[in-house]
């Protein structure tokens, strides 16, 4: 394939060359396939489920793998409990290829391979911090990884050329590669992904038997904190089991924190009780402040809340008029009140743009429900 053909619509050539083999045509595997195909990369797909494979191919994530394919890079995207098995098989079947995987736990597969005596020189574990609540090839998207971190776990055996190949994969799909050890990765995702999943599921589980009248009061806040509770139980049993130790350590510490708050609220008038509650909320403020924002920046934005009629085209008109005012929308959150014929659009803008956005929108007839500092 010529250099001219191997470009996307922007004319930027892919960093990867040759054939990329993806084993596992679910959400992540198929999304990688879509992203690489959009760059002109030759992608072949393999999956133990014929229907999943055909569906991914029909949607354009790649072609069916055939005898004679000679991949330069293999991406293993299978459930955690079979990740090590598939990596071992791929290393054996394709002795000239570099193998990576995208499992959300990195230490367990690495340990399993070493315990079996597998030569892991050509294996480099990696993990894109991206996903959706719904899985499968039908949910795959080419833009799933854009702007997301992609952890690459090198070790002392890793060859620079092999490392560059895995990092090229991350860059070609629009992700931001960063290096960590498997231990650093697993402890990090325990805090930022695995424990939040457990907490969200526990909270959402309370809704299963809640009174219907109480649930009608649910606003955007509770939806934000429980969104990931819609995840697949079968997958999370594997993930949490493979990364149990760091998850347990954080859950135990969190249980201590919850006990301290509940003890304070049992006697809220007692000396020190209010301070415990206030410090808990303040520490949460401090933690949120440390989370990276748009483009990974710890940058503060202002929020304005605009009332948007629940009719076709209104949100598009709002964005269009903000563009005419020269206001860049840094982030957006929508909230609908049950039974109301309007929604609330909470728009994040640069601090210098807040006043102009408010005045300009009001002149155009928009109703401003409020403005806040993040």
UniProtKB/TrEMBL annotation:
<comment type="similarity">
    <text>Belongs to the prephenate/arogenate dehydrogenase family.</text>
</comment>
<dbReference type="InterPro" id="IPR008927">
    <property type="entry name" value="6-PGluconate_DH-like_C_sf"/>
</dbReference>
<keyword id="KW-0560">Oxidoreductase</keyword>
<dbReference type="Pfam" id="PF02153">
    <property type="entry name" value="PDH_N"/>
</dbReference>
<protein>
    <submittedName>
        <fullName>Prephenate dehydrogenase</fullName>
        <ecNumber>1.3.1.12</ecNumber>
    </submittedName>
</protein>
<dbReference type="GO" id="GO:0008977">
    <property type="term" value="F:prephenate dehydrogenase (NAD+) activity"/>
</dbReference>
<dbReference type="InterPro" id="IPR046826">
    <property type="entry name" value="PDH_N"/>
</dbReference>
<feature type="domain" description="Prephenate/arogenate dehydrogenase">
    <location>
        <begin position="18"/>
        <end position="295"/>
    </location>
</feature>
<comment type="pathway">
    <text>Amino-acid biosynthesis.</text>
</comment>
<dbReference type="Pfam" id="PF20463">
    <property type="entry name" value="PDH_C"/>
</dbReference>
<dbReference type="InterPro" id="IPR036291">
    <property type="entry name" value="NAD(P)-bd_dom_sf"/>
</dbReference>
<keyword id="KW-0057">Aromatic amino acid biosynthesis</keyword>
<dbReference type="InterPro" id="IPR003099">
    <property type="entry name" value="Prephen_DH"/>
</dbReference>
<dbReference type="InterPro" id="IPR050812">
    <property type="entry name" value="Preph/Arog_dehydrog"/>
</dbReference>
<dbReference type="InterPro" id="IPR046825">
    <property type="entry name" value="PDH_C"/>
</dbReference>
<keyword id="KW-0028">Amino-acid biosynthesis</keyword>
<dbReference type="InterPro" id="IPR045865">
    <property type="entry name" value="ACT-like_dom_sf"/>
</dbReference>
């Amino acid at each position: 394939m010529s250099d001219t053909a191997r470009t996307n619509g922007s004319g930027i050539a892919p960093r990867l060359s040759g054939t990329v083999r993806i084993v596992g045509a679910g959400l992540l595997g198929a999304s990688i396939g879509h992203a690489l195909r959009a760059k002109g990369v030759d992608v072949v797909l393999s999956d133990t489920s014929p229907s999943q494979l055909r569906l991914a191919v029909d949607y354009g994530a790649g072609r069916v793998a055939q005898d004679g394919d000679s991949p330069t890079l293999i991406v293993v995207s299978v459930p955690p409990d079979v990740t090590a098995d598939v990596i071992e098989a791929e290393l054996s079947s394709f002795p000239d290829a570099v193998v990576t995987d995208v499992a959300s736990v990195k230490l367990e597969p690495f340990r399993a391979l070493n315990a079996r005596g597998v030569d892991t020189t050509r294996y480099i574990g990696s993990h894109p911090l991206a996903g959706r609540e719904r899985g499968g090839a039908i949910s795959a998207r080419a833009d799933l990884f854009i702007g997301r971190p992609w952890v690459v776990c090198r070790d002392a055996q890793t060859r620079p050329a092999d490392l560059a190949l895995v990092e090229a994969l991350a860059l070609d799909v629009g992700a931001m590669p960063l290096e960590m050890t498997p231990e650093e990765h697993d402890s990090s995702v325990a805090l930022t992904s695995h424990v939040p999943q457990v907490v969200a599921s526990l909270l959402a589980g309370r809704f299963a038997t809640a009174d219907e009248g109480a649930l009608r009061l649910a606003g955007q806040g509770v939806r934000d904190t429980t969104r990931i509770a819609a995840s697949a139980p079968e997958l999370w049993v594997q993930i949490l089991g493979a990364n149990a130790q760091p998850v347990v350590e954080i859950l135990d510490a969190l249980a201590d924190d919850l006990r301290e708050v509940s003890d304070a609220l049992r006697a809220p008038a007692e000396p020190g009780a209010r301070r415990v509650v206030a410090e808990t909320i303040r520490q949460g403020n401090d933690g949120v402040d440390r989370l990276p924002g748009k483009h990974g920046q710890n940058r503060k934005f202002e929020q304005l809340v605009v009332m948007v009629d629940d009719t076709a085209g209104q949100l598009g008109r709002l964005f269009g008029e903000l563009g005419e005012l020269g206001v860049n929308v840094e982030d957006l959150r929508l909230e609908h009140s049950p039974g109301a014929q309007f929604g609330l659009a909470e728009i994040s803008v640069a601090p210098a743009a807040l006043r102009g956005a408010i005045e300009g929108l009001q002149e155009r007839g928009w109703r401003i429900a409020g403005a806040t500092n993040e």
